[in-house]
Amino acid sequence: MFRSFAILSSACKSGGATVISSSFTRRPLVPSLRLGTLVKHCSSKSTEVSTQAAPEKTKDDGSKIDNWYTIYHFPSIMITASVKRLKYYPTIVTAVSVPVSIALAYANIWSMTTAEIVGAIGLTSTMTLSLFSMLTNNLVGFVYCDETQSKVKISFLNDKGKRQDRVYSVDDLVPRSELPSSLLKLYFPVKNHENSDVYKLVHRYGEIYDVQTFDKVFGRDVVKK
């Protein structure tokens, strides 16, 4: 007790100020969560800015043109497409019927003459339809033009008898005077400077709805029948 009283008295003599030291010190809290959130927010903002700054590349293929009007139509285009699609059926039937007919002839079920007739019919029909399909490849059924008469859309038949559309600039079409004459002048070829595609336009048996625009697109000597 006397020792405690001595300690208190010495503390009073030193001015009454007591310093208590501790080995444990508090470290300042680092706002790591706020810093991570801020970095994530800034990165997302920069991504949005870069995405908005990149312009979209659009291809001028005529898909955005809504006002097309017809300047040419081939009335028999639907019949031609149907006949072109029939070429696969005789080929399959001939490939199956000819071996069967020959086998039946060797089995003395019917004569070899009957097998020859079956083969001749199948081969003739297949060759006829294949030749017709080859001659009518890229046959033009419709020709459309826009309001400014600067774009032209050509609708034609491919080798399978399906419709295909191509859009070209009028200036890209090869002039009629630079093209050779077609077989028997039943049609005239339509070419362009972009690729080597050749389309067949039967102007003699087609319907021209706008003669002036047709002359501007393909040439004046085309309309003469």
TrEMBL record:
<protein>
    <recommendedName>
        <fullName>Transmembrane protein 186</fullName>
    </recommendedName>
</protein>
<dbReference type="GO" id="GO:0005743">
    <property type="term" value="C:mitochondrial inner membrane"/>
</dbReference>
<keyword id="KW-0812">Transmembrane</keyword>
<keyword id="KW-0999">Mitochondrion inner membrane</keyword>
<keyword id="KW-0496">Mitochondrion</keyword>
<comment type="similarity">
    <text>Belongs to the TMEM186 family.</text>
</comment>
<dbReference type="InterPro" id="IPR026571">
    <property type="entry name" value="Tmem186"/>
</dbReference>
<feature type="transmembrane region" description="Helical">
    <location>
        <begin position="117"/>
        <end position="145"/>
    </location>
</feature>
<keyword id="KW-0472">Membrane</keyword>
<keyword id="KW-1133">Transmembrane helix</keyword>
<feature type="transmembrane region" description="Helical">
    <location>
        <begin position="88"/>
        <end position="111"/>
    </location>
</feature>
